[in-house]
Design goal:
The complex is a heterodimer.
Chain A: H1 2-19, H2 28-39, H3 41-63, H4 102-141, H5 143-162, H6 165-176, H7 180-207, H8 210-217, H9 222-234, H10 236-258, H11 271-279, H12 287-314
Chain B: E1 4-13, E2 21-31, E3 36-40, H1 47-55, E4 63-71, E5 74-75, H2 81-87, E6 92-95, H3 109-121, H4 125-138, H5 144-147, H6 157-168, E7 175-179, H7 187-204, E8 207-212, H8 215-221, E9 224-229, E10 232-238, H9 239-244, H10 249-256, E11 315-316, H11 327-331
Parallel strand pairs in B: 3-8, 3-9, 6-7, 7-8
Antiparallel strand pairs in B: 1-2, 1-4, 4-5, 9-10, 10-11
The chains are: A mainly alpha, B alpha/beta.
């Protein structure tokens, strides 16, 4: 119970923190945030890492020196005897246990990782934001009945938050069966309550602001107030969370693949799967695990750095 | 027949496990078309709560509202939410204290004005845009076409308040409620905004309920003034009567406490002693008694009635009013 409340509280606090973002600076808030983002080293490093990752993901299959599935050097490795070739010219990352070029597989695998990360984040964002908007709108403008609706939705998200995210993802994946779509949905589902709670919290803060009162005093309809007044002002924490979520999504997707719930098709390499396969040969060829692991970590780090920098840029309390 | 007739309006905030807090305790006043009526009082006397109650903007939960507020034959306090939304902004509009926080920061001014025109006057597209520019022009914003595209933070404080006023008068409302419209502005801008409000009232015959703690604003603008203390009107009179013959000890003290430029050097200021927290419930007597120099035991025998001890139409809620013989006291 306590961990649930803590988690929920943390998200609410984040929403509130971001929303004390003075209305005084208005739309210049974004301009100001962009300026501070550009000045931030953390953001620059994050952006470079992400850019590199995206480029690799996009053009990986074309620059890969070999087909990711070609077992060209099958005779060079003897996994049973623990004989691997390691790094050598032509195979920069060495060969895996089936005689495939690890570097090529790594390059091609980046695309799957990016795809899973982005799609699952989008699933979480869209569904979560929809729930959050309903809940936030009901709570701010729906009167007593609306507050009841909000309470029900929020208890539901609390339940989802109370489940350990990986366990939830594994359960979803287990129910849906093994496939790439499963991984995306499973990882996305985990993000839903986070986005829902965040958006709802930030809408609640905006709902109490003067300009919403002024809009009510001018007789605007509720739907209009939600769409043009509350929502546009509530989005900044959600955008930050979306960036941070990409990092979590990538790690969780890799974890699911590692646990064998990912894409079963061996023709499509993926960093999580590569990691799982490398585990068996960790004693003899540890580098085979290091490459995908480093890929996952660096990419997640890039998104985290950018996300944190964005959060700082948008946080008025750190302004100065 | 007054356009708005408020009768014994009371607002009580209730919270579980806490004592009820009475914010407005039986306020009555009338506002006729083309008339400017002031509600004056210090912080916490219930001015703003009165305006929010009239607009129906108080939260539904934890608030008890009593009395009647008849606007154009309809009771504002009991009408359906749907009907209230329809007349808000079209017949009854409000101008808020802080123009910046009352404007949506992420939407250009033009959109904020046109959405009201769309809502209440059914205007669309180019017509709405033209009308919005016309409105900005009317409230004295130069180059309206350009300003329409700008965001609130790009306007100066005075222009923001003008834009808010433009939004409030967009549908030619019959009544405006202005809740301290000049408090957040520079003195020079204050004068311009008051001038603008006066102009609107004179030209359109709009009724204006002016809520303020600034006696200068009252002196410059209001026809009738109600002085509130602890949620009740203690004195209501025409502007001239109030300023020449403040009769309730509180009003008297308020006017006496204004520093004067022509006072001799070194003369001490004359505050009213105590604070608004030193009060007794109106039900038990005069809430001002603990701070009053003139109080007697009689002040503690139930709520004093409104009487007209000095002149007709000059109502005072006091058993020991400051009467004209003390005119010397005023100028002293």
């Amino acid at each position: 119970m306590t961990t649930v409340t803590k988690k929920a509280d943390k998200i609410d606090r984040l929403a509130e923190l971001m929303q004390t973002t003075e209305v005084t600076s208005g739309a210049s808030l974004w301009r100001e945030a962009m300026r501070r983002l550009r000045a931030s080293k953390m953001a620059a490093i994050g952006a470079v890492v992400i850019a590199a990752f995206v480029v690799i993901a996009l053009i990986g299959p074309w620059i890969a020196p070999y087909a990711p599935t070609a077992q060209t050097w099958r005779g060079d490795v003897f996994p049973n005897r623990g004989e691997f070739v390691g790094m050598r010219s032509g195979n920069w990352f060495g060969l895996d246990h089936l005689g495939r070029d690890v570097f090529s597989r790594w390059l091609v695998g980046a695309r799957q990782t990016l795809l899973v990360g982005v799609v699952s984040m989008l699933i979480g964002l869209v569904v979560g934001a929809l729930i959050g908007v309903c809940s936030g709108a009901a709570a701010t403008l729906g009167g007593r009945a609306g507050q009841r609706v909000d309470t029900v939705i929020m208890r539901f998200t609390d339940i989802m938050l109370s489940l350990p995210s990986l366990l939830l993802a594994v359960s979803v994946a287990a129910v849906l069966g093994q496939s790439l779509t499963t991984v995306m949905i499973a990882v996305g589902v985990v993000q839903i309550p986070v986005f829902a709670r965040l958006l709802r919290g930030s809408m609640l803060v905006q709902g109490g602001s003067d300009y919403v009162l002024a809009a009510k005093a001018l007789g605007l309809r509720k739907r209009r107030i939600v769409l043009t007044q509350i929502l546009p002002n509530s989005l900044s924490p959600v955008i930050v969370q979306a960036t941070l979520s990409l990092a979590t999504a990538i790690i969780e997707a890799a974890a699911l693949s590692y646990l064998g719930l990912g894409n079963p098709d061996p023709a499509i390499p993926e960093w999580g799967v590569m990691l799982a396969q490398a585990q068996r040969f960790f004693d003899n060829e540890p580098m085979m695990a290091v490459y995908p692991a480093v890929g996952i970590i660096i990419t997640a780090l890039g998104f985290t750095l950018l996300g944190e920098a964005m959060r700082e840029a948008l946080d008025p309390k750190l302004r100065g | 027949m007054a356009l708005l007739s408020v009768d014994e309006l009371s607002v009580t905030f209730t919270a579980k496990g806490r004592k009820d807090s009475i914010a407005v305790d039986g306020v009555s006043f009338d506002v006729a078309e083309g008339q400017v009526v002031g509600l004056v009082g210090e912080s916490g006397c219930g001015k703003s709560v009165t305006s929010l109650a009239l607009m129906g903007l108080l939260p539904a939960k934890g608030v008890r509202i009593g009395g009647r507020a008849v606007f154009d034959g309809q009771d504002l306090l009991t009408m359906s939410p749907q009907y209230r939304r329809d007349i808000r902004g079209s017949q009854l509009a409000m101008i808020f204290q802080d123009p910046l926080s009352s404007l949506n920061p992420v939407v250009p001014i033009g959109v904020q004005i046109t959405e009201i025109l769309e809502r209440h006057r059914g205007m669309k597209g180019e017509a709405a845009r033209k009308e919005a520019a016309h409105l900005l022009d009317r409230v004295g914003i130069p180059d309206p076409a350009r300003r329409l595209k700008e965001f609130p933070h790009q306007l100066s404080g005075g222009m923001r308040q003008r834009a808010l006023i433009a939004m409030a008068v967009a549908c030619a409302p019959r009544m405006l409620i202005a809740d301290e419209p000049t408090t957040a502005l520079d003195v020079t801008i204050q004068a311009q905004i008051l001038e603008l409000l006066k102009e609107l009232v004179d030209q359109e015959g709009t009724a204006l309920l002016m809520i303020t703690h600034d006696l200068g604003v009252v002196a410059g603008l209001c026809d009738e003034v109600n002085v509130l203390y602890a949620g009740r009107a203690v004195e209501s009179a025409g502007r001239r009567d109030l300023f020449t013959y403040p009769t309730h000890p509180y009003a008297h003290g308020l006017l006496g406490s204004i520093p004067r430029l022509d006072a001799p050097r070194g003369e001490p200021l004359r505050p009213i002693r105590g604070s608004i927290n030193d009060r007794i419930a109106w039900a038990d007597g005069c809430a001002f008694a603990p701070r009053c120099d003139r109080y007697t035991m009689e002040c503690l025998t139930g709520t004093p009635e409104l009487t007209e001890p000095r002149a007709a139409g000059h109502q005072v809620r006091c058993v020991n009013p400051v009467l004209p013989k003390s005119k010397a006291e005023v100028s002293a």
